[in-house]
Design goal:
By secondary structure, the protein is α/β, with parallel strands linked by helices. The chain has a five-stranded parallel beta sheet. Strand 5, helix 6 and strand 6 form a beta-alpha-beta unit. It is globular and about 50 Å long. It binds phosphoric acid mono(formamide)ester and norvaline. Phosphoric acid mono(formamide)ester binds next to helix 2.
């Protein structure tokens, strides 16, 4: 049987995505009652990261411990992916010790190549092109606050980056409308949109350059950093380009009062979002962050058929 990986949301069908979210919701409600079913006793999670992480790394490891297993962590350099041995050899050896491998890399292709040689599921914990576990968590959170996903409108104010591309795919898979409010020059590339259209011809993704107009019918106003990890040298240019795209009180006033505010975190308060929006009653950013762990539990249990 083919090993099920999660390098991108395209690795799932919409039915599998719903199934996985249901699993996470069920495990979350047990967790809130103090129940931690030991579904993965004796299982090993190996994490290979080449960028820093608070939420992803620790939600994955906590999830595995809650389910009765344990985790090992190594940088990709420590794993030997810096030329010490071939990627195929590292993947074959590490997957022979592990039940699940999570990876955070600069290159998206590295995760795809690694997964091709891994005998256990490989989960993308963020690459330059995708952040599928963030988008799945966001769907879980939106379901909690809005109920049904179909027909909801998510407005991402910011960069056409890894997080926003995964959200666009997530929206296409669940019948949500997705608007990217973006400065000129930072939109989605044509290849991304072509693939999205090929896979989900009915998707409702649009790109606008006016954030006020974009949020007018939002159920969710979402933002992320203007300069992602690896783009630090471009931060000043981005700060000027995105200046009109800050999510602040004035922009939230252009959205319906019922709209929620989301951010994958870490946030650069004072840049893409102000303190008052982070802390306002519409903000669900900490519920969203906690859900990284609940989603990870659902994902691990689902991937391993437990
Ligand atoms: N949202 C998210 O992936 O956070 P970390 O970079 O802290 O993992
Ligand atoms: N777009 C951000 C997300 C961080 C979780 C980055 O790649 O740095």
């Amino acid at each position: 049987m083919k090993t099920q990986h999660l390098t991108s949301l395209y690795d799932l069908t919409p039915a599998q995505l719903t199934d996985l979210l249901d699993r996470a919701t069920a495990l979350k409600s047990l967790f809130k009652k103090g129940e931690r079913p030991q579904l993965l006793q004796g299982h090993v999670l190996a994490q290979l990261f080449e960028k820093p992480s608070l939420r992803t790394r620790n939600s994955f490891e906590s999830a595995m411990i809650h389910l009765g297993g344990g985790g090992i962590f190594l940088t990709t350099a420590e794993a030997g992916l810096n030329g010490r041995e071939s990627l195929a050899d590292v993947a074959r050896v590490l997957s022979s010790f592990s039940d699940i491998i999570t990876m955070r890399t600069f290159s998206h292709q590295l995760i795809i190549d690694f997964s091709g040689h891994s005998s256990c599921p490989v989960i993308n914990g963020l690459s330059d092109e995708r952040h599928p576990c963030q988008a799945l968590t966001d769907l879980l959170t939106i379901r909690e606050v809005c109920g049904e996903l179909k027909g909801r409108h998510l407005v991402f104010v910011g960069d056409g980056n890894n997080v926003s591309m995964s959200l666009a795919i997530a929206c296409a898979m669940t019948g949500m409308k997705m608007t990217l409010a973006v400065p000129k020059g930072f939109e989605y590339g044509p290849e991304f949109l072509e693939e999205l259209t090929r896979r989900y011809p009915g998707h409702q993704t649009q790109q606008l350059h006016d954030p006020r107009k974009a949020v007018a019918t939002a159920d969710i106003v979402y933002t992320d950093v203007w300069a992602s990890m690896g783009q630090e040298d471009d931060a000043d240019r981005r700060k000027s380009a995105f200046a009109e795209f800050q999510v602040n009180e004035a922009l939230m006033k252009c959205a319906p009062k019922s709209a929620f505010f989301m951010h994958d975190l870490p946030a650069k308060r004072g840049l893409e979002v102000t303190d008052d929006v982070m802390e306002c009653s519409q903000s669900i950013v900490f519920q969203q962050a906690e859900n990284r762990m609940h989603l990870a539990r659902g994902l691990f249990a689902w991937l391993l058929g437990k």
